[in-house]
Amino acid sequence: MQALTASQLLTVWEQGTSQPPVHQALLLLAAALPGISLDNLAELSIGQRDKQLLALREQLFGPQLTSVIACPVCAEKLEFTCHTTDLQAQTNTQPGETLVWRHGAYEVHFRLPNSLDLTAVAPQARPANDDLAVIRNQLLARCLTSATHHNKAVTVDQLPETIVSKMVAHMTEVDPQADVQVALSCAACGHQWSATFDIIVFLWAEINAWALRTLHEVHYLATAYGWSEADILALSAWRRQTYLQLVQP
């Protein structure tokens, strides 16, 4: 994985600011993994993609992650800290690999969902609860190579709900990095629950805060010294901070 310069990261941030999270993830990986084509990156399973994003996050900001979340019962604000290794799950599949799942008389050949699939089924707005099953079935239909019942071909719509639910659960087991859960406990009310950790949402929020802070530093130093943005960004973060301390009251 290639180390990104401040200038490169700002360019990715600018390009991805108005894009959905799936596109933001691919922009970041395309910059950090220039030897892999965008098409190949898009074909990584969600878990494979997120594993690379975790590695990029560690390279950019270090291995420790800190976040604040509100308790769903009492709304108390909780701060939790973890290490990137705490969020890593084992993934043993290859991009686009066809897998087989059998349950009773059903046999399903499938691949794991990737970024292209998420983009294809993503709703324009936040989906209502009634639409979640439809989106799930659309995603499953894209990932199924074939399905049979007693050796007779069936479609996703012909699969019973129990089989669909078991199939989705199996896909999560095969690609656990795609659905990372963090165990949380509220010190105020004692409520315990699990929250989904979305690496791209978390990482992009960090990048956004970093970019705004960096542009502020560029503006201040350019005003004070007359340097160009490129010259300022070429400085190490430590040297930028040193110059800022010299010119700020």
How would you describe this protein?
The chain has 249 residues and is α+β, with helices and mostly antiparallel strands. The chain folds into two domains: 6-90 and 182-247, no CATH class; 99-174, no CATH class. 50% of the residues lie in helices and 18% in strands. The chain has helices at residues 6-16, 21-32, 38-42, 46-61, 115-121, 129-143, 161-174, 199-225, 229-234, 237-247, and strands at residues 64-70, 77-83, 99-103, 106-110, 144-149, 152-153, 180-185, 192-197. Strands 3-4-5-6 form a four-stranded antiparallel beta sheet. Strand 7 and strand 8 (192-197) form a beta hairpin. Helix 2 (21-32) crosses helix 4 and helix 5 crosses helix 6 (129-143). The longest helix has 27 residues, at 199-225. The model has no long low-confidence stretch (mean pLDDT 91).
Task: Give the structural class.
Answer: alpha+beta
Relative strand content: 15-25%
Strand order of the largest sheet: 3-4-5-6
Order of helices and strands: HHHHEEEEHHEEHEEHHH
Contiguous uncertain segments of 5+ residues: none
| Strand segment tally | 8
User: Percentage of helical residues?
Assistant: 40-55%
How confident overall, as mean pLDDT? Answer: 91
Shape: elongated
Radius of gyration, taken over Cα atoms and rounded to an integer in Å: 22 Å
Q: Tell me the distance between the termini.
A: 40 Å
Count of spatially separate domains = 2
Largest sheet: 4 strands, antiparallel
Oligomerization state: single chain
- What is the number of helices? 10
